[in-house]
Structures are given as C-alpha cells and as structure tokens.
Amino acid sequence: MMPNSLKHRLIRWLEDNRELVVVLFCLPASFIFSVMLRVRGYLRRLGSDPQRHDSAVREIQARVQQWNKLPSQNRKLLCTSRPNWLSLSTKFFEKHLNHQVPIPLYDILELDEQNMTVRVEPMVTIGDITEYLIPKGYSLAVTIELVDATLGGLALGTGMSTHSHKAGLYHETITSYEVVIADGSLVTATADNEHSDLFKTLPWSHGSLGFLVALTLKIVKIKPYIKIKYIPVKGQKAYCDMIRQLSGTNEARPKEFPDYIEGTIFSKDEAVVMIGEYSDYDAKVPVNHCSRWYKPWFYKHVESLFRKGEKEELIPLRDYLLRHNRAIFWVVEDMLSFGNDTLFRYFFGWLLPPKPAFLKFTTTPGIRAYTFTKQVFQDIVLPIKELEKQIEIASQLFEKFPLLVYPCKIIDHGPSSGQLKRPDAKYLVPGTNYAMYNDLGVYGVPGRVKEKKSYNPVSAMRKMEEFTRDVGGYSFLYADIFMTREEFEVMFDLSLYEVVRKKYGAEGAFPHLYDKVKPEINVFEIGEEYAIK
Ligand SMILES: Cc1cc2nc3c(=O)[nH]c(=O)nc-3n(C[C@H](O)[C@H](O)[C@H](O)COP(=O)(O)OP(=O)(O)OC[C@H]3O[C@@H](n4cnc5c(N)ncnc54)[C@H](O)[C@@H]3O)c2cc1C
Ligand SMILES: NC(=O)C1=CN([C@@H]2O[C@H](COP(=O)(O)OP(=O)(O)OC[C@H]3O[C@@H](n4cnc5c(N)ncnc54)[C@H](OP(=O)(O)O)[C@@H]3O)[C@@H](O)[C@H]2O)C=CC1
Ligand SMILES: CC(C)=CCC[C@@H](C)[C@H]1CC[C@@]2(C)C3=C(CC[C@]12C)[C@@]1(C)CC[C@H](O)C(C)(C)[C@@H]1CC3
C-alpha cells in the first residue's frame, strides 16, 4: 500500500503536469492500447461465429435470471460492466453502486446486401464497422467520426453525422433491436411488431430499459472518394442561409442537395461550409489523404482556405469519415498546444489522438472538476431556423470557436413516440413530416476561461439549456447536464418511456434515464467553487 502523503503528492503532480502526462503516458499508452484492440478485433473476427452469439446471449439471460433470484434488498440496479473509462462520455457513472452484467458481444453478425442492412453485436466499434464495410462498397447510413464509439452505445445514446440532413439521427437507421429485458427474456423490437413501444423508446434510453444484445442497421452504397467543396463565407446571414438552403430546410429537395454537409464556424462572421458527394477517381481533382498522421489537422486545413479561397478535393472515403479523429475535432489543441506543429506531426503525429479511454483513465477528481468547470463539451440539437441565435448565445456564453454545425432531419413520429419531443410545426419543412435541426458542437476551453474573464460554468450552461428548451431542442446526454429532473422532463418527453419502463419490468431493475445521465458529482457546489468571479 502506498502511504497517503505520497499518494496525494503523486496526484498533485499528475494534476500539475497534465501536458507532460499526456505526452509521456497517455499518447504512448493509448497507442499500445489501440494496437492491442486491433489485434484483439482481428482475432475475434477470425473466430466469428453466430452460434457463439446465441450462447453468449443465453449467458446474459442466465445472469439476469440469477439477479432476479437475489433477495430484493440485495438487488442493486443493473448496468453493463463496460468500464466507465472506456465510454465516450464526460461523466463517470458510478457502476460500482450497481449490479454489473458483462456484455462480451463484439461481432459483426450478418451483412444482408439485398435488404441493405448489417446485423451487429452492440460492442462493435465505428472503427471495426468502417473497416469491414468500406472494402465491400458500403457504409453505415449515419457514421460517426470517432473510431471508439460503439454501435450499441450510439443506439441507446444518440449519433449524428454530416449525412444526417438526409438520413436523420443514427437511431432512424436502426431497423431492429434485440434486447434482454429485466425478467431475462429476449425480445426483438421493430417499428411494427408487438414491441414497437420498446423500439420507440430505446434511443436516448442509455441502457435504462434492458441489455442490448444485437441490432440491425441500414447501410448505403458508396464510391471510393468524397468530392468535397470547401466554401469560405464571410457574413453570418450569408453562411447560415447557405447551410439552410443546401440542407433542404426551405424545400424538401433543393436543386443542389449534397450527400454530406458540414459547417465550421471560425468566428461570428466567418465560416467554411463543406459539401461532399460520392465520387469515383477524377484525375482533374487533387486527392487529399487528410487522415494520415503527417497531414495538418482537418479543421486547420479548413481554416487555411480563408487565405486560399474556395477549393475542391477528393478525399478517400475512410479518410473523410475519420477526418476529425486525430484532433478529436479541435479538442486536442487545448491539450497539446504543439500537436499540429509540422515537426511534431511528422515524428509523433501517428500517436494521435490520445484515446479518450486513457484520458478518462488518468482523470483524478481534481481533473474531473476541471473538466466541467473550465472546459465545455456539448453537442446540442437545435432548430436550424434559429442558427443565428444559437451562434449569438453560444459565443456570448463561452467565447469558444470554432463551433461545429451538422444539419439534421428530426422526423415527427406523432404524439408520444419516444423521448424526443415532436418538432414544433413552425419548423417543419414544407410538405414533409420532418423539421431541419442542426447539431451545435462546442468543445474545449472557453475563451472566457483562457482570458480569466468572469465565468460561472453552471449559470452559463443553464442559460444554454434554457435556450435549448425554449426552442424545443435536445442536449446530447453523453455531456454534463445541469438540469433539474423537472427541467429534464420539459426538454424530453418521458410519457411513453415511463409506460414502457413499467411494462417491460425496467422499474426497480435498471436506473431511471435521468439518474443514469445526470453528472455523478454535485455540479452546483463544485461549479460555485471554481467560478471565476
Ligand atoms: C480540453 C482539455 C482536456 C484535457 N483533458 C485532459 C485529460 O483528460 N487528461 C489529462 O491528463 N490531461 C488533460 N488535459 C490537460 C492537458 O494535457 C494540458 O496539460 C493542459 O491543458 C495544459 O496545461 P498548462 O499547465 O500547460 O497550461 P495552463 O495555462 O494551465 O492551461 C491552459 C488552459 O487549459 C485549462 N487546463 C489546464 N489544465 C487542465 C486540465 N487538467 N484539464 C482541463 N483543463 C485544463 C486551463 O483552464 C487553461 O485555460 C486537458 C486539457 C484541456 C484543455
Ligand atoms: N457524432 C456523434 O453523434 C457522437 C456521439 N457520441 C455519444 O457517445 C456515446 C456512445 O459512446 P460509447 O462509448 O460507445 O457508449 P457508452 O458506453 O457511453 O454507452 C452509452 C449508454 O448506452 C448504454 N449501453 C451501451 N451498450 C449497452 C448494452 N449493450 N446494453 C445496455 N446498455 C448499453 C450504456 O449503459 P451502461 O452505463 O450500463 O454501460 C450508456 O448508458 C453516446 O451517448 C453518443 O451520444 C460520442 C461521439 C460522437
Ligand atoms: C455529434 C458530434 C459531432 C459529436 C462529437 C462528440 C465528441 C467531440 C465528444 C464525445 C465524447 C467527448 C465529450 C469526450 C472528450 C472530448 C469530446 C468528445 C470526444 C474528452 C476526451 C475530453 C477530455 C475529458 O477530460 C474527457 C476525457 C472526460 C472526455 C471524454 C469524452
């Protein structure tokens, strides 16, 4: 056992020398960890066998049945045993207070080229599935930019990509969920079978309804490249209007309706709008392997186009899909100030990104407090008609650029159709049953913190959440939330969710959604303590 004083000194040292810790420990350790995961994934794929899936599911069912036999006072609420530090969430859900069930399901089960779907186990990652699908000429309809996100975690949380203005949120591309519910039975939920209520409430449920053991996802045909056009735009109204027009906010099928759209906002008045189409090789257009280790970080390349002007490039599809992986959008810049320097890139660029898993692994309580008080990590889904207001409020509260904008279709599935509230009629795209929203991504150290201007993280975030509720938007729940339960129930519609929890026995077996996604620390107390007066 390490003496307490030594332990405290070590923790202090780790907290005071984070950049050194990242370079000396996190980067090499995450690199070794990635190699090990790749080898493990490869070996697993060699031994892939649907029979094994059935027996692994029976094992999970048996564990849930055993849990049911425990005396009720010994029955802690159920959650998966996936270590929290592996999860892409800023929170540290306290798994040790719960009864953990292992879900060792990492296989891709079946590719159905006729119905254009793929059936997978929930722990398959975005990295695994892109590696599997792309050589076969397919991609997930909604694919995320971070290799570590799992297909199950995204299904029960939420996912969005630059194709979401056409495909909607990730869960709109799921055709069935196979779930072990609280009594240990296995149910398959689809949009039109007897479990359609479960189907509607599994997205945004964060494992509070049952254990996901398989899911079937829609795939799309691809071409080897994305022909991307970068359009630098000056003037807020000009870039907001352009994003709205191109994403189909004003009309269902505008003349120019690209497969991929993304906006990176560098200041209130400057943005680069990127539009992409699937393409074959075209000798007239330069190829950019933008995800290679020595290449400038993607958003830095995008920013440089303000000097260079409008440009067209061919990006190999895998490079495009993982374009934000190396710099974790722009998060790594605040951690490693020299990470995009040419020398660092050529010699050590292959070590990036630091695995979020390792960053979480080395997070002490002090750093955790820092993470939510001196940084902001938020993705918020808001009506795109309010884009100017979103930018105004976010820049006032956080003074943090770039901001990320992904347009996204929010489908109106009718009353009480899941946790997502119906979009307001005034936001519906004329002649359709959907409204155009967008993800607003705010990541990193707020300018107000860097400049030591007055900043209270709790009141800033609560103002942002209030705006989100007022316009009928939704906060991604991987991020820290600052809402009371009442406010949470204004943002999300829990009416069907509560019915489903009772019907499928989740009450008393799985934690409630709010309890699962609220920060594990007292944000109000810590927020006050760290506020910059
Ligand atoms: C967005 C972000 C995420 C980080 N996440 C991790 C992590 O998960 N694990 C890890 O080991 N290190 C993390 N760090 C720390 C990082 O590795 C650097 O050590 C640190 O940013 C630079 O510290 P400094 O003393 O050189 O500069 P400073 O001038 O002390 O800091 C620069 C800015 O970063 C903020 N900051 C400083 N230290 C931290 C910290 N530990 N966490 C959050 N913000 C900080 C400060 O508020 C300041 O605005 C993170 C830093 C940032 C900015
Ligand atoms: N572009 C995007 O849209 C991005 C989205 N994200 C967010 O990151 C998260 C995904 O990260 P990831 O690390 O893969 O997932 P997590 O491990 O964070 O899981 C997310 C939630 O789903 C639950 N869950 C996961 N698998 C199962 C299962 N098989 N059975 C029951 N519950 C399960 C977890 O419960 P438990 O705690 O019990 O394990 C947890 O509450 C999502 O919340 C997503 O919104 C992140 C990056 C990008
Ligand atoms: C819809 C879109 C584009 C979503 C992108 C979300 C990412 C930017 C988020 C998801 C998880 C995320 C919050 C994470 C972090 C950065 C931003 C991430 C990657 C980090 C690594 C930042 C540093 C933190 O100390 C900590 C390690 C807790 C988190 C972990 C999750």
From TrEMBL:
<dbReference type="GO" id="GO:0000139">
    <property type="term" value="C:Golgi membrane"/>
</dbReference>
<dbReference type="GO" id="GO:0005789">
    <property type="term" value="C:endoplasmic reticulum membrane"/>
</dbReference>
<dbReference type="GO" id="GO:0000246">
    <property type="term" value="F:Delta24(24-1) sterol reductase activity"/>
</dbReference>
<keyword id="KW-0274">FAD</keyword>
<keyword id="KW-0732">Signal</keyword>
<keyword id="KW-0560">Oxidoreductase</keyword>
<keyword id="KW-1133">Transmembrane helix</keyword>
<keyword id="KW-0153">Cholesterol metabolism</keyword>
<comment type="subunit">
    <text>Homodimer.</text>
</comment>
<dbReference type="Pfam" id="PF01565">
    <property type="entry name" value="FAD_binding_4"/>
</dbReference>
<dbReference type="GO" id="GO:0005777">
    <property type="term" value="C:peroxisome"/>
</dbReference>
<dbReference type="GO" id="GO:0008203">
    <property type="term" value="P:cholesterol metabolic process"/>
</dbReference>
<dbReference type="InterPro" id="IPR016169">
    <property type="entry name" value="FAD-bd_PCMH_sub2"/>
</dbReference>
<keyword id="KW-0285">Flavoprotein</keyword>
<protein>
    <recommendedName>
        <fullName>Delta(24)-sterol reductase</fullName>
        <ecNumber>1.3.1.72</ecNumber>
    </recommendedName>
</protein>
<dbReference type="InterPro" id="IPR036318">
    <property type="entry name" value="FAD-bd_PCMH-like_sf"/>
</dbReference>
<dbReference type="GO" id="GO:0071949">
    <property type="term" value="F:FAD binding"/>
</dbReference>
<keyword id="KW-0576">Peroxisome</keyword>
<keyword id="KW-0521">NADP</keyword>
<feature type="domain" description="FAD-binding PCMH-type">
    <location>
        <begin position="44"/>
        <end position="222"/>
    </location>
</feature>
<keyword id="KW-0812">Transmembrane</keyword>
<keyword id="KW-0753">Steroid metabolism</keyword>
<keyword id="KW-0472">Membrane</keyword>
<feature type="transmembrane region" description="Helical">
    <location>
        <begin position="20"/>
        <end position="39"/>
    </location>
</feature>
<keyword id="KW-0443">Lipid metabolism</keyword>
<comment type="function">
    <text>Catalyzes the reduction of the delta-24 double bond of sterol intermediates during cholesterol biosynthesis. In addition to its cholesterol-synthesizing activity, can protect cells from oxidative stress by reducing caspase 3 activity during apoptosis induced by oxidative stress. Also protects against amyloid-beta peptide-induced apoptosis.</text>
</comment>
<keyword id="KW-0256">Endoplasmic reticulum</keyword>
<keyword id="KW-0333">Golgi apparatus</keyword>
<dbReference type="InterPro" id="IPR040165">
    <property type="entry name" value="Diminuto-like"/>
</dbReference>
<dbReference type="InterPro" id="IPR006094">
    <property type="entry name" value="Oxid_FAD_bind_N"/>
</dbReference>
<keyword id="KW-0444">Lipid biosynthesis</keyword>
<dbReference type="GO" id="GO:0050614">
    <property type="term" value="F:Delta24-sterol reductase activity"/>
</dbReference>
<keyword id="KW-1207">Sterol metabolism</keyword>
<dbReference type="InterPro" id="IPR016166">
    <property type="entry name" value="FAD-bd_PCMH"/>
</dbReference>
